[in-house]
Amino acid sequence: MRKTGRPLDRGDALRHTGDVTIEVSLAAEFVGRVDELAAELGKSRSELCRDALAEYLERRETGAITASWDAVVAEVGREFDPWVAETSQRTFERNEW
């Protein structure tokens, strides 16, 4: 169901179980880049925008960064390498944070 004339409020989003059509205004040169990437990936413009927005929202969720690092550590392992530790410490000390 398409709603126009007002943005969806949080209650609408929580009650809705199907797709909702929204309108987004983009600069013409940006649309060209979107279309090129969509074609390269074999997706429609809507699919690309939907996937990009889903990825953006996922990255902003609380703990998403920690979870992604935890996944990397689980894949790579927690082996301690003295050389890596020493090099990392020196790099840390050389850089201003």
Describe the structure.
The protein is an all-alpha fold and 97 residues long. It is built from 5 helices and no strands. The chain has one domain (27-94). It has helices at residues 10-15, 28-41, 45-60, 64-76, 82-94. Helix 2 crosses helix 3. The model has no long low-confidence stretch (mean pLDDT 82).
Spell out the blueprint of helices and strands.
Blueprint: H1 10-15, H2 28-41, H3 45-60, H4 64-76, H5 82-94
Helix pairs in contact: 2-3
- The string of secondary-structure elements, in order, is HHHHH
Which radius of gyration do the C-alpha atoms yield? 21 Å
Mean pLDDT: 82
- End-to-end gap: 49 Å
Number of domains: 1
Question: What's the helix count?
Answer: 5
Q: Structural class of the secondary elements? A: mainly alpha
In which range does the helix fraction lie? 55-70%
Features:
mainly alpha, 5 helices, 97 residues, 64% helix, single chain
In short:
Helices cover 64% and strands 0% of the residues. It is mainly alpha-helical and 97 residues long.
